[in-house]
Amino acid sequence: MRSIRLRGVLLALAAFTLALASFSIYKNYSPAPFFPENGQTISSSQKMGHEGADQIIPVDESEVLRLRKKVRVFVWVMTSPKSKQRARAVNTTWATRADRDLLVYMSSEADPSLPAVGLSVKEGRNHLTAKTMQAFDYVYKHYFHKADYFMKADDDTYVIMENLRYFLSFFDTKEPFFTGRHFKPEVKQGFNSGGAGYVLSKEALARLAARPKDPPLCKEDGKGEDVEIARCLEKLEVRILNSTDSRGRSRFHTHEPVKHVIKGVSWMHNYDANVVRVGEHAINEFPISFHYINPEEMRMMHFFLYHIRPYGINHKFTST
After folding, report:
1. Which of 148, 228, 252, 305 could form a disulfide with 173 if both were Cys (CB 3.0 to 4.6 A apart)?
2. Which pLDDT tens digit goes with each residue over 142-184?
3. Which residues pair with 289 in a beta bridge?
């Protein structure tokens, strides 16, 4: 019980640190991610009246609204009938920051309350590839012309949508690329962690949907969906976009903030395509995702990110 409480406190502190960055002035910072070449992996204003602290302080979110219109991101969340509690936590937290007409849940059973699409697939880790392939095919058929980018996330992944749109705003969705937490083994150019979530450009999704199926070019079922999707996209000449910034700091994360800020994850040293670091200086000021977030932690993280901020602090970033 004590360890659980400690984890909660550490998560809250980490989320609060992230909140400081997420509400910063975007125009004072520019990332420097890059495309692979030659086959390699590539303002707030506040005003308070005489009413005091009980007054609602207006915040200028014009930049957030601009990016929401400019960078249309479709998100599908992988879930199952047995994990509805996690899906509902997503639905009441970070999903509220997404465009509701550009977000669906993918399961083996339809659930209009989410809404969840019922795919013709068996549940279980051995069928994650089939679920992912079918989900992307469904998204292509029904949403391709409505969005610029297409993200896959798990129902225990927390996504900061504002930071995702900001990151993607620097690229051309007509380029065939996908991005996320870049791992190096299994596939020549590597693959993106499924738990951290990954994003396909419009051209990448078009190529995936048009993949030959008779005979099949790609594996259509099995476990290790992130590896199989990467193998398939590599065959379709879709490149990995390195999501780290010019200082090697991460944006997509395979674990909860506590692991990346304080404790570390030992196994990642054998998988990550970049140098694995731990601490507040190892994470970009505008992180995009964190994995292994349970429903309680997801609600707490959302609270710290979007409902609490220190008064009068202005963050300026001068390097990437």
Report:
1. 148
2. 999 999 999 999 999 999 999 999 999 999 999 999 999 999 9
3. 159, 252
Per-residue model confidence (pLDDT) at position 45: 24
The model's pLDDT over 30-65, given as tens digits with 9 standing for 90+, comes to 343 444 444 445 521 233 343 334 445 455 678 888
Q: What is the pLDDT of residue 36?
A: 43
H, E, C per residue of the chain: CHHHHHHHHHHHHHHHHHHHHHCCCHHHCCCCCECCCCCCCCCCCCCCCCCCCCCCCCCCCHHHHHHHHHCCEEEEEECCHHHHHHHHHHHHCHHHHCCHHHEEEEECCCECCCCEEECCCCCCHHHHHHHHHHHHHHHHHHHHHHCCEEEEEECCCEECHHHHHHHHCCCCCCCCEEEECEECCCCCCCEECCCCCEEEEHHHHHHHHCCCECCECCCCCCCCHHHHHHHHHHHCCCEEEECCCCCCCECECCCCHHHHHHHCCHHHHHCECCCCCCCHHHECCCCCEECCCCHHHHHHHHHHHHCCCCCCCCCCCCCC
Average pLDDT value over all residues in the chain: 85
